Amino acid sequence: MNIQQFLERELTKDLVKISGKNFPAIVKPAQRTEFGHYQANGIMGAAKALKQNPRELAKKLVSNTQARPFETEIAGPGFINITLKTDFIADALSALRSDPLLGITKPKSLKIVVDYSSPNLAKEMHIGHLRTTTIGDSIVRILEYIGHDLVRANHVGDWGAQFGSLLAYMDQLTETGQSLSTELKDLERFYQAASALFKKNQDFAEKARNYVVKLQSGDPNCIELWKQFISESIRHSQVVYKTFDITLANSDIRAESAYNDDLPTVVQELASEHSLLVESDGAKCVFLDEFKGKDQKPLPAIIQKSDGGYPYMATDLAAARYRTRVLKANKVLYVVGVEQQLHLKQVFAVAKKAGYIQKDQEYKHLSFGMVLKEDGSRFKTRDGADVKLIDVVNEAIERALALVSKKNPSLSISEKQKIARVVGIGSIKYAELSKNRTTDYIFDWDRMLSFEGNTAPYLQYSYTRIRSLFRRAEINSLEGKIEITEEAEIRLSLKILQFPEAIESTLEDYQANVLCGYLYELSGLFNTFYERCPILGSYNQTSRLILCDLTSRIIKQGLELLGIKTVEQM
RNA sequence: GCGCCCGUAGCUCAAUCGGAUAGAGCAUCGGCCUUCUAAGCCGAGGGUUGCAGGUUCGAUUCCUGCCGGGCGUGCCA
C-alpha cells in the first residue's frame, strides 16, 4: 500500500465534498518531524481559488472526520499536518510482512525497451561507459521488478570507418606472423597502435580506407577478420559486465550492423512513402521546421551521406523502426549522454513523421552529464587517456579488501575477498547512482572509493548489523504482535512503509538517486533505532526483530534494484 | 550568433515539480565502545541558493534581463 496515495485520496475526497470543486489535497511526507508524518498542502490553493480563508477551510476539512486512522491538525497559513495512529502503522507493517513486493502495487505491464551501455566495439570500455551502463541497468531492474516486460537493448557500435584501420592492422599482424589473440588481449593498446600507424604511415592509411570499402561491400575475407575482432571485443565487454554485476547478456546485443539491411529500406520509405527526403549537397536529408542551425538555416538530419554511406542517424531510425514494428514496444528509453540531445531529438522527430514512432508510444531520452577530470576538463575520447572501466572496478575491489582486512581481520581470506568484491563494486555504482543523473560527473578515485557516509558500504553495513542480530537470536519464527512506542521505532516504521513511494518517485523521472536517498534515510533511521532501542532480550524483542527483518529485506531488495549486492557480514 | 543544460555550506551533492526555520555526507571541532559489528551513534560551527528585477499569502523551484561555466549547432559516433 502506498500511504501517501491513500491519504491523498481520503483528503481529496473530503476536500471535494466541502468545497464542491475538484481540488487536490496535495499530500506530501512531512518536511519536519514536528509536523507529523505527512502534510496536506492543497488547502491554501483551494481557499485562494474559492476566495475563502484557508484556515477556515482547513478547519472544515479537519472537523469532517469519521473514524480515520490518522490525526489531523491545522498549522501555519493552512497546512494540515497528519499523524498516523500507531495501530494503523502496526497493521500496515503486519500486512507488509507477507508481501513479496514489500508494498508495491504492480502497474499494468508494459513492453519497455531500454537502450543502454552500447559501447563502441572498436574500443575497450572506459570510464565514460560507467554512467549509461550503471544507470540503465538499474532502471531495467526496477522496471522489471514491478512487473514490466523489459528488453535490454545493447546497441553496440560494430560498424563504420574506425574498423578500417583495425582490420588493416589485424591483417598486417597476421602477415608478419604475430599472434592475433595475444595482441587483442589489450584492445585499447591495439586500437592505439592501429591509429598511430594510420597517422604515421600513408600506405597503411590507404590500406585502412580500402578495408572500410571492402567491409561495406561484404568482402568475405574482410568480414571474417571483422567477425573475429567483434567477437573478441564482445568477449571483453561481457567480462566487464560479469565482473561489474551488470545484467546484460550476449543475447541482449543487437549491434548497429544488424540494421545494415534495413538502411536502404529506411531511405526508400522516407522518400517514397513520406516524401520527407531531400537531396542537399549530394546528401539525402530530412529537413524539419523545428531544427535550425547556424544563421537560422534549416538543419538537416542526414540519412545518407554524399558518398553513399549511412551515418548513425540512419541506424537509429532503423532501430526505432525495429523497436516499434518488431518489438512492439510501449516505451523506449535511451540512456545516452546529454551531448546527444539534439541528435536524439532529430531521431524522434523524423521517426514520428515516418511512422516509426506511433502516438501511443513513448520514446524518451534519459540524458546524463559528462565525466570530467578533477580540474573540470573533459575526458577525451581519442587520445588514449581514458581510464579503463575494468581498472576502476579492480581498484575499488583492492581498496575494499584493504579496508575489510583492517576492520575485520579475523575473517578468512576467501570471505574477505568476497566482501571486497561486493563492497567495491557497490561503492562505484552507488557513487554514480546516488547523484542526479543529469549533472556532470567528476571522476575522483578517492571520493569514489571512500567508504564512509552516504555510500553503498553504509547501507551494506546496516544490513550486516541486522543479519548479525538474527544469527545471535537463533530463532526460527517471528510470530507476535508489533508494538511500536519509541520515537525511533515510529520513525523507522514509517520509513519502512514508504518503500513503494520511493520506487514510484524514482520512476517519475528515472532518477535512481531518489531510491538511494530513501535507502540512506532508512539505514540512518535503523542505525538510530539500533543505538537507542535494545533489541535482543528486550521486553518486545519480537516486535523489534520484525522491524529489523523488514528493514533488512528492503535494504537488500533496494540495493539489488541498484545492481548492488549484500553480504551477511563485513 | 542561435539552441539546450548548469550555478545551493570550504568540497561532493539533496530539497519528493510553488510550501513552514534550505538539508545530508566529506572535511573541522566536541562527546559515546567491560551490552546486539564504532564502515556506527549524538552534538557544534559553516548559507544574501551567481546577480538584479517580476509574478503571490509564500520562490532554490515559475517569468524577464544580466554575469559565469558546459554541451550542441550539415555529411565522426
Which stretches of 5+ consecutive residues score pLDDT under 50? Answer: none
Q: Return the CATH class of the largest domain.
A: Mainly Alpha
Largest sheet: 4 strands, antiparallel
Shape: globular
Percentage of β-strand residues = 5-15%
User: Structural class of the secondary structure composition?
Assistant: alpha/beta
Tell me, rounded to a whole number, the average pLDDT: 92
Q: How many structural units, i.e. domains?
A: 4
Radius of gyration from CA coordinates: 28 Å
Strand order of the largest sheet: 1-2-4-3
CATH architectural designation of the largest domain: Orthogonal Bundle
Q: Quote the distance from N terminus to C terminus.
A: 33 Å
For this structure, what is the CATH homologous superfamily of the largest domain?
Answer: Isoleucyl-tRNA Synthetase, Domain 1
- CATH third-tier fold name of the largest domain: Isoleucyl-tRNA Synthetase, Domain 1
Helix content class: 40-55%
Topology, number of strands: 13
Tally of individual helices: 21
Walk me through this protein's architecture:
Monomer. With 570 residues, the protein is of the alpha/beta class. It folds into 4 domains: 3-84, Gyrase A, domain 2, CATH 3.30.1360; 111-156 and 256-366, HUPs (Rossmann fold), CATH 3.40.50.620; 162-232, no CATH class; 389-561, Isoleucyl-tRNA Synthetase, Domain 1 (Orthogonal Bundle). The protein has helices at residues 3-19, 42-50, 54-63, 86-97, 129-145, 162-175, 180-183, 187-200, 202-216, 220-243, 263-273, 312-325, 341-354, 389-407, 413-433, 445-448, 456-473, 487-497, 499-508, 512-532, 541-561, and strands spanning 27-29, 38-40, 70-75, 79-84, 111-115, 149-153, 277-280, 283-292, 298-304, 331-337, 362-368, 371-372, 441-442. A 4-stranded antiparallel beta sheet has the order 1-2-4-3. It has a 4-stranded parallel beta sheet with strand order 6-5-10-11, with helices on both faces. A 3-stranded antiparallel beta sheet has the order 7-8-9. A hairpin with a 3-residue loop joins strand 3 and strand 4 (79-84). The radius of gyration is 28 Å and the shape is globular. It binds one RNA strand of 77 nucleotides through helix 2, strand 8, strand 9, helix 12 and helix 13.
